[in-house]
Amino acid sequence: MTDAAEQAQMPELVIVTGMSGAGRTEAMHVFEDLGYFCVDNLPASLISNMVKLNGASDGDGACGKLAVVCDARNGQYFGSLVEVLEELEAAGVDFKMVFLDAGDDKLVSRYKSSRRRHPLCTDGTTIAQGIQRERTLLAEVRERADVVIDTTEMLPQRLRSTLRAAFSQGNERKGLSVTVYSFGFKHGAPIDADLVMDVRFLPNPYYDPDLRPLTGLDAPVRDYVMLRDETIEFKKRWHALLDVVMPGYVSEGKQQLAIGVGCTGGQHRSVALAESTGDYLKSKGYRVSVAHRDLGKAERGRDERELDSESADVGARGM
Q: HEC states along 75-90?
């Protein structure tokens, strides 16, 4: 399924509500990663306005999908949520409501560990009494929820994977943003890469005078690197490794992954292999961007050599 088709099947609006301390903040992080524009603590009466504003955007900043948290912190404004839901249904707005719940004992424990005040404990009541007030307030909303998730025994990772499975059409790989970049070791080892692959063992196009001024983005260099027997064998093993580790990162709930592919100068081998790696991961359904950290330095170095050569020629001619 294409990215556009997946986006089309995702609901236009997601309303996140539920018990305070049940994981709403973590849920919003998931929807941000899925490409939703997120608004926390939005009064129910403003949801329709946000939908209209988001839909009317010309694309300069809004992403077309909206996720909002509407909960007991809204106080008197929260009571109108059921009416707003009916208005959205009548207007034909494609929305889903997620209700996050947890056992009373767990909610009390979470509030005690966080040392935050429960939103319904403003008059000196205990946390347990505030939780009961909130349950009463949310009873009708819970009945109308499309997705109810009990987070009592859930770690944040499990909640993230549950939401991604429910709202990314079963393709959890789209929740992982992957950056593959080339670099040159002579310009310094990467400090932000989760995986680093050193490809300096492959034959180096630098020693071919015709290929030296080119880069791994040029077909002659790409063919020189990628069609070698050593590279063909390496790609089999490299892809097999990626096939093992990438699903593991997804299941662990990792949101960003950086893969560094390095050669000596970051101009030839690493560039070609970074492009190839990006293409492979895209074919597996991952959301990938490819960058070349040191390619600009290599090009500047080449320009300086050419200028030095021209200066030497001029000097020779002047003698």
A: HHHHHHHHHHHHHHHH
Cα separation, 236 vs 144, whole angstroms: 51
Ordered strands of the 195-198 beta sheet: 195-198, 256-263, 177-184, 287-292
pLDDT in tens, 245-268: 998 888 776 778 999 999 999 999
* pLDDT the model gives residue 306: 43
Q: How far apart are CA 180 and CA 275, in angstroms?
A: 8
Q: Write the CB contacts of 217 (distance below 8 Å, at least 6 apart in sequence).
A: 271, 272, 275, 292, 295
Contact 221, 215 (CB under 8 A): yes
The structure's pTM equals: 0.59
Across 263-301, b (16+ Cβ under 10 Å) vs e yields bbbbbbbbbbbbbbbbebbeeeebbbebebbbbebbeee
Q: Which residues contact 28 (CB under 8 A, 6 or more apart)?
A: 16, 38, 40, 67, 69
The beta strand positions in 264-314, using DSSP E, are: 287-292
Element of type H or E holding 230: helix 229-251
The letter for the amino acid at 85 is: L
In a 13 Å sphere around the CA of 30, the CA atoms on its Cβ side amount to 26
Flag residues of the chain having pLDDT under 70.
Answer: 1-10, 55-63, 74-79, 115, 123, 169-175, 253, 299-319
3-state secondary structure of 109: helix
Measured distance CA(172)–CA(192) in Å, rounded: 23
